[in-house]
Design goal:
8 helices, 3-stranded parallel β-sheet, 4-stranded parallel β-sheet, single chain, alpha/beta, 227 residues
Amino acid sequence: MTEPRIVSLLASATEIVAALGFRDRLVGRSHECDYPPDLDGLPPLTAPKFSLDGTSRQIDDRVKDLVHNGLAVYHVDEDKLRDLAPTVIVTQDQCQVCAASLADVEAAVCTWTGTPARIVSHNPNSLADLMRDFRETAEALGVPERGEALVADVAGRIDAVAERARDLPAKPRVASIEWMDPLFAAGNWMPELIEAAGGINLFGEAGVHSGEIEWEPIRAADPDVIL
């Protein structure tokens, strides 16, 4: 089997590719990828279309303006991506404002000729979905057995934490905040992680995207821990 040439346009996907044993097959990355720590030599292929200066609220306003006008939030360097000739591209369609999306990548490669790269798109809303992404990435790289091994390793580590947390004399009440202004309560898999670690999740729903929340409910709930 020909060794893959991998481009990862999502920081978590880059970590997954490395965990599957393919760090040395990465040929390109996103501007946000910073782990493993030796990625500096790989060309970044994405960039935000908005300024990162300013407050949390100002950044949120800029992103919302782009989305409202039907514009992509990130730029994908089509020429550089084509020149790298990847055989596998890993991206996401879980959140259009968090990283380059599946639509961005499809637009970038739609004019390519020859054998198209395989696009693996992550769309996790739960821990089970994350495990599915491990498996799908491993399958695309031709090593499904490594995907199963990674799932077993990560699930085992979560179970080990949950086992220790069962002996907690009291469960802390937790507010998990994903963005400061406007406030977003973390959803998706964060409530599952909090509960596995022995906490009681106060805001945000497992399996559902994070949503805006006001300060007053947080004050009223008086959480023991704010993440």
